[in-house]
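Can't paste images in this forum, so I'm doing it all in text. The chain is below; anyone willing to post the predicted structure tokens underneath?
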Amino acid sequence: MNELATPLELLAAVLAFAGAFFFLAGAIGFLRLPDFYTRIHAPTKAASLGIPLMAFASMLLHLGAGFDLWIEDALIMLFVFLANPVSTQMLVWAAVARNIRPCAETIGQPSGDLET
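Text version of the structure:
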């Protein structure tokens, strides 16, 4: 069991750490951002980038070991890419329907170039 890690295992570890970094950044953004509309952005991006990276790392390990479980990892990535944006959009629509106002600091100002 004292074998050196294969390049496939090293790549999988790098991808898993990158996915974990996105989740950490999303959690920090969720805690630090001022209102609902900006808070929902951070975990959405973290899940959109973090879960596929971790699933791809798992897929690489399963392929390297000769298991057929890589199909499940591919289905996880597909589900996240389809469900995450839809669920986020539904949450935003619900917030708009409940008349949740954005923070004054996050409301954009029109550009001077657009005014006529």
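Residues 97 and 108 are 20 Å apart (CA to CA). The chain has one domain: 9-100.
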